[in-house]
Amino acid sequence: MKGALTVQITKFFHKLPKESKNSIYLYNFKRVLNKDVKIIQNSRRRSIVFEDKEQEIILKKLLPDGKGDNDICALLELHDSPYFPKMFAYKKRDYLFIEKAKGKTLLEMLKEGISLEELRKILNQLIKAKKEMMSVNRYDFDFKLEHIYWDKQKEIIKWIDLGVCVKMPMEYSEEEKNRRIEQCIIKVKLKFLFYGYDLFNEMNR
User: Fold this and answer.
1) How far is CA 85 from the centre of its chain?
2) Contact 52/36 with Cβ under 8 angstroms?
3) Phi first, then psi: what are they for 189, rounded to 5°?
4) DSSP 3-state assignment of 151?
């Protein structure tokens, strides 16, 4: 089968259970998904996201309007960051397998109620993640609160859905990077304020 062997695996693939590895290999060769897989997001012509509940892995199938490989390239560049999902395998312009983000989205947490202490931790980590993204000269044009997951047990965020995390055509100066990070912080704080959480006067960066 021409092209079937073009799947690329990352260092995280080798740490997966045998069943998860088999699922990835099976999909690459046969495009078969097991019975426990369900669609969790359908972005029209950009992508379809599947969740394998049994293996706790996510498959993102790229569609015609989403084949710019931003997800893949961004996760390759940010593979050592704890704030972005681990990518296990991918086939450029086709699909990627990543770890499932644990916990709830930041939007859910704000709606349900969250302590200011937790919110400070989330914002601090979000700033670090933004700095790491800027360090590889990428900008996420689709940043949303529902793209940030908070694992309450491990106290760590996961920034998901990097389909529009674009490599910028020019490298920004440190001054410009800091300016853009500051803008991001203000936007996030304004979103927090909308839900009744004011961190403008107490966030110590």
Assistant:
1) 5
2) yes
3) -65, -35
4) strand
DSSP run (H or E) holding 40: strand 37-42
Q: Is the pLDDT of residue 155 over 60?
A: yes
Read off the pLDDT of residues 96-144 as tens digits, 9 standing for 90 and up: 999 999 999 999 999 999 999 999 999 999 999 999 999 999 999 999 9
Order the strands of the 95-99 sheet from edge to edge.
8-9, 87-91, 95-99, 57-62, 47-52, 37-42
Is 50 within 8 Å of 38 (Cβ atoms)? yes
What is the DSSP pairing of strand 165-167 with strand 148-151? unpaired
Q: What DSSP character marks residue 101? A: P
Task: Mention every residue, 6+ apart, whose C-beta is less than 8 A from residue 124.
Answer: 205
- What's the distance, CA 140 to chain centroid? 10
DSSP character for 17? -
3-state secondary structure (DSSP) of residue 43: coil
pLDDT tens, position by position, 162-192: 999 999 888 888 898 899 899 999 999 999 9
Q: What are phi and psi of 203, to 5 degrees?
A: -80, 120
Asked if 53 and 33 count as a contact pair (C-beta separation under 8 A), the reply is: no
What is the pTM (predicted TM-score) of this model?
0.90
| Tokens matching residue 178 | 């800091």
What does DSSP say about strands 148-151 and 156-159: parallel, antiparallel, or unpaired? antiparallel
**Stretch 196-200: mean pLDDT:** 92
